[in-house]
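Protein 1 of 2
SEQ + STRUCT:
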Amino acid sequence: MTQRVGQSLEIAILKALKEQDGLDFFGDFRDLAEHDDSTLYSKEEPPAAISGKRIPGDKQLDFLLRHPDAGYAGLEAKNIREWLYPDRVEIRELLLKCCALDVVPVLVARRIAYPTFRVLQPCGVVFHQTFNQLYPNSAADLATEVRDKTLLGYHDVRVIDAPDADTTHTRLKTFLRDNLPAVLPAAREAFEQFKDLLNAYATEQYTYKEFAGRALRRMRGEDEDLTTNDTPQEWGD
């Protein structure tokens, strides 16, 4: 079920990508028309190597996008309940993959915490919040149960093809068609400036506090090699 929920957001992203013409992309599901979503679909992952650069280990991005001016971007979809803070393993893995391939990191998730935006967006990481968790169509009964306020009360759960998921899909299409192509050139410039720090954080050479402090001091043009435990208050915890 966890994998099927994960595929629900990836499928929504794939459908939105097919409706835009500003970005070339890699990543597909081969058998979407062959059976329903009660069983997993076969994912065709994007390349794990570009021009001699390779993601370490047995890791791959969910989608690989190509912008005519900004070059490549790596998109990850996280259809999970937890808010994504900058010290989460999901964040580090996205940065690890994208730094290895030299591609701009893009994250689509249900909810992304303010410190994550505050710390990583100026470093060239692009974010989009869905505000909903998508469930597969075959789990419609389960979705009704988890939304029940006398049970789990997850009011933001939506079944992928249900009418009440239209807002999520519309926002996703707008992000991929209009917003993402518009911000990728600036994100590429920022990513180039902070890529070494992002990679050091992703590979655990720096703790979160060390990374955040160095990133802010670099933005200010200050000496980065100050005491590494003095994370500026502007970043939050």
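Protein 2 of 2
SEQ + STRUCT:
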Amino acid sequence: MGFYIAKIFTAFLLPPGIFVIILIIAGFAAKKWKYLFFVSAFFLYLLSLKPVANVLISPLESFRHYDKISPKAVVVLGGGVNPNGVFKALPDAFKREMYGMLLAKKHDLPMILTGGGKIKEAIEAKKDIQKFEKTCGCKIEYIPESRALNTYQNAKYTSELFKKLHLKKEIFLVTSAYHMKRAYILFKKFGFKIKTKPVDFKAVPVTRWLDFLPDEGSFNISYKAVHEYIGILRAKLR
């Protein structure tokens, strides 16, 4: 019993649970806009639940597409970097990076990592790749695209790079599963034929009543999902 009490206490002591409580208290205390506080608390609570996060993220993660092609390269979308880390890529980006390297090695294809802009993620990633090569005793042809700042630019600048390299636009596309649909739409707009290779799945089974307590991880997944739906709408309207 003490374990469950501790879990409940922790869920509402830490964000986002504590903010749900604050909004509810503000609703009772406010003379004006009290319903705004209550509604905000309700939606914050919902978005912080694992079942709701799963409902939002699962349709994105189920997206797949396979053109009938023989890919000429593995294109990996960057997702953040920490130059001070043992591995330079942030966790989501590291999963993309590793899967991209495995695909490049398996199919004997060049790997193109696109992204980074000012932080030069595509350049920093080379250090991770060198660690991989040293450990497995293998060699991967790595081509960085380091100008892109967003998914649209990932597609645009990768397209320009393919023209420069005289590569046919037939690719394995690697990114997080929740991000794949938006990436696919934009890369298609630039003439790529694609076999999607999603990685880094976020949806997890709901197995216990504790999953109905608010937590930061579920809120983060909900945030990613909502961000992607907005991004997909913008991509379709471009």
